[in-house]
Amino acid sequence: MPLWAERAAHVIALVNVPSGLWRLGLAAGISFGLADAELRQLHTPGWGSLYLIALAALSELFGFLALGLIQPWGETWPRWVPFLHGKRIPVLAVTASAALGSVATTVYGGLLVYTSLHAHIDGTAWAPWLINILYLPLLLWGPLLSAVTVHYHLRRRATAS
User: Whole-angstrom Cα distance, residue 149 to residue 9?
Assistant: First the structure.
């Protein structure tokens, strides 16, 4: 496994951490400089906290799945998967889902950062800066996932031949 692919996959797994911690902090009632009106709009603390926690967890899960592109568990079903354990995971299934994920995360990251850069956020002067800094790493997710996906596909296709 080339070092660049390993590092890229690990970066993918980590790009969600800053925004995820921000979401968890909001869910716990930390304002991060946002005005009360902004927090009420997010319904935090309250039922909006559940949404923020779920979004943070789901984002981390999807980021973690990128490690499967460089690990053995991304090539062969793990022992704990009934009926499939030990069987090879189809290359096309992984490549197609990872490619779709790379397109989705590129669009998601771009739109999220664009929106946060152009949004009117009520609160302290530093609140919008903090949000932008925490969401900026998401711009790396899609391009890095694309590169690691292409490498996975070429590597697995070569070993399948």
Answer: 10
Cα–Cα distance, 150 to 148 (Å, whole number): 6
Say what the pLDDT of residue 123 is.
Answer: 77
Amino acid making up residue 6:
E
The confidence score (pLDDT) of residue 22 equals: 92
* pLDDT average per 10 residues of sequence, the chain (161 residues): 94 94 91 81 82 94 94 89 90 94 91 80 82 90 96 88 58
For residues 81 and 100, give the distance between their C-alpha atoms in angstroms, rounded to a whole number.
24
Give the three-state DSSP class for 33.
coil
Bridge partners of 88, per DSSP, are 76
Alpha helix (H) residue ranges in the chain = 3-14, 17-27, 36-42, 47-65, 91-118, 127-135, 138-160
Q: How far apart are CA 30 and CA 38, in angstroms?
A: 12
The DSSP bridge partners found for residue 76 are 88
pLDDT at 160: 67
Q: Under 8 Å CB-to-CB from 74, ≥6 apart: which residues?
A: 67, 68, 89, 94, 152
